[in-house]
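Hey forum,

I'm writing up a methods section and want to include a predicted complex as supplementary material. The small molecule is adenosine-5'-triphosphate. I've pasted the protein sequence and the SMILES. Can someone with a working setup run it? I'll credit the forum in the acknowledgements.
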Amino acid sequence: MTYDLPLAAASRSAARPPGNANHPQGRRVTELMLGHIVALFDASGGCLALRLDNRRPDLTIVACQGDSGYRPGEAVASDDPLLGPAAAVGPHDVSGGSALSWPLLAGEQAIGAVCLRRASAAAPFSSQDLQRGVASAAFLAGVIESVRLRDEARRRLEDTRRQLLQSEKMASIGQLAAGVAHEINNPIGYVHSNLGSLDNYVGDLFRILDVYAVAVRQAAATPGRLEEIEALRRQLDIDFLREDVRALLAETREGIGRVRQIVQDLKDISRAGAKDEWQQADLHKGLESTLNIIASEIKYKAQVIKEYGCLPEIECLPGQLNQVFMNLLVNASHAIREQGVIAIRTGADAASLWVEIADTGCGIPPELLPRIFEPFFTTKPAGQGTGLGLSLSESIVRKHGGRIEVESEVGRGTTFRVILPRQRAAQGTGRPNEGESE
Ligand SMILES: Nc1ncnc2c1ncn2[C@@H]1O[C@H](COP(=O)(O)OP(=O)(O)OP(=O)(O)O)[C@@H](O)[C@H]1O
Ligand SMILES: [Mg+2]
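Reply by user p_vandermeer:
Happy to help. Structure tokens for the complex are below, copy them as they are.
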């Protein structure tokens, strides 16, 4: 069990999860409630201690008021006479006055304790006071427990969201793998068949070389032999073979080069899900890799027009930006029912760079436009879209300090514009997977 009601002081238990300490709202609630209890009992001070780590019995002071006898952030041993498990027994005489304390219970479990002090000038606490405070302590424990449950639910939701984003990434990489297999299969097919032809050609070449070798030896002795060789040369079409061997080799080399490029592109793209680092990168390169990978998704439906401007390299998370381009390009291709055009335009001004992906697809009705970046919003049939593409893309672009703009007209098409600052933005200086989905 971890209580997210934060410490009033900077010091805090090492077991607390980082990031939630000093949450101003939680601190205010704790202090307000403690203040009420202090006032209700005419106390000169009070404090609230919580068990921040359920693996350990000791408590930590999370809020103090007036003269409480404790300091915020202080660890309280489990045998402390005021706040330890014996706290329900009281009132206590303490140096300079009297004190009262109540355990804070969540069900059967003690989650902490609250303690009040009254200076010696005032009347000491009575056992009626102790009795009267049981309800306040129960109320305080209830509030603390509900804050904890709320934060736990929030954390679980956040974990689920992260897992979903991760599985969305994995799903899109899975879909890509099928496209990539198709793309690789094609060049491999003709490389394979070319190698078959080369095998025959080389066989023919060796045959004629053998005949030449014998002929050279016999030429002088047998006058008709040279014509015979000439006839065979014509039959095997050695002149054509000479040319075609070269063409075949060039084509084979190109095919193998394409396979190598596709494998490289796939490696670049799939890096998005694994470790991705801020680095200087050329966005055109990323666009080209992404286009190569999704070629099979697009090429039967859309003509791709590139109008690239001049882009400087920028410091970014290239794998993640490729994922954004991929989402936008796949969306554009899905929006085109039969045949259309996808235009990719890029440019830069003094402060920023932009990449525009415009399609001549179905467009987005104005009433749906405000919803497209919502997680899980999709108009695609079940199994085809999770509705996470744009939400993930937007969070990646935001992490870069940029934004995505969209314009759409039903029946005419849609244009998405990714705008990124030239200089890495302050909010983009976090860890690569921060805020994701990642
Ligand atoms: N270029 C586009 N043209 C028309 N509609 C679009 C376009 N891009 C996005 N949309 C609309 O926005 C919705 C949300 O897009 P998003 O990319 O977030 O999810 P998805 O494509 O439905 O699913 P996923 O990307 O998770 O596979 C889409 O279902 C579609 O209705
Ligand atoms: Mg999508």
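Some notes you might quote in the supplement: The pocket of magnesium ion (ligand 2) is lined by residues 327, 330-331, 385, 389 (CB under 6 Å). The first helix runs from residue 24 to 40.
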